[in-house]
């Protein structure tokens, strides 16, 4: 329709300009609180652990606290919620939040200037240190060395450490064993892909925040289509809100579909996505694409095949028979059974979940 074409082709800068007239949480970290965090089965343990750390400060029930999960599931929100809660109750506390990439760049810059003491003084005197995306220090020898000593100094000073990553410590390649053991010395908790009910609640919360009129039908459509990323849900709501400000009418399914198209693999042909998924699964499970698409029943090949079907269900709108076609024409019931098996395993096997998350991330970034 003309409406969806307008939304799709409209310059991003203009969309953002329209959004400036409504409250936006972007870069307003004070909005990231425990009260605004929606709790569901997928994140309740991480939420409870973070809340315990924040409410019990300066006691340290979990130190360090290590939170992991795929991109866009709420880890950063929880880190800021801890920061904001402790700041509110203990304004005297020296609390530092930093992304590990910024930690790395700051260290390199001060090292270049010959002023590493300033860096050490800043981080080792924190009462609470929150580091986001800690996996990015892996493979960087000097940075790991510095963080190792910073970590030890903070523990000795009875400071609280909270770390977030896209995978558990044991799965961070090129992370020194002495750091891995320290990361594992406290509590490790994860956030996994959000369930339907949590997505619906999140969509409704953001729609209310942006004064967006949205029907249950459109809410259901968005929740069904955005599979595994809470951040993408907010992006969709913002795009729809921009359209509503212009069109002055409630959004429909077509508008929602147009908003979703920009941030999913939906704009790619299914066969392209299939090839990407099979290639990335092939690399991760070290079996050939031909074996994944074939009929061999070796355990590792069967698992890789089932994972590929599961990921295609997550990333595309393909029907079950369509998913089964590249894998020797598997029928509806076989594909459904394979997907269900992986769904059950993901709930109980953090290592498998992390590997699947890595494949999904690689598929989206190719």
Global geometry:
globular
Mean pLDDT across the residues is 85
Widest sheet: strand ordering: 2-3-4-1-5
In this structure, how is the largest beta sheet organized? 5 strands, parallel
Order of helices and strands: HHHEHEHHEHEHEHHHHHHHHHH
Per DSSP, what share of the residues sits in E-state strands of 2 or more residues? Answer: 5-15%
Helix percentage range: 55-70%
Count of strand segments: 5
Euclidean distance between termini CA atoms: 30 Å
Number of helices: 18
Gyration radius, rounded: 22 Å
- Helix-and-strand structural type: alpha/beta
Low-confidence stretches: 1-27
How are the secondary structure elements laid out?
Blueprint: H1 2-9, H2 12-19, H3 44-56, E1 65-69, H4 75-89, E2 95-99, H5 100-113, H6 116-124, E3 128-132, H7 141-156, E4 160-165, H8 177-183, E5 187-191, H9 196-209, H10 216-225, H11 230-247, H12 253-261, H13 270-285, H14 289-293, H15 299-315, H16 320-324, H17 332-348, H18 350-365
Parallel strand pairs: 1-4, 1-5, 2-3, 3-4
Helix pairs in contact: 1-12, 2-11, 3-4, 9-10, 9-11, 10-12, 11-12, 13-15, 13-18, 15-17, 17-18
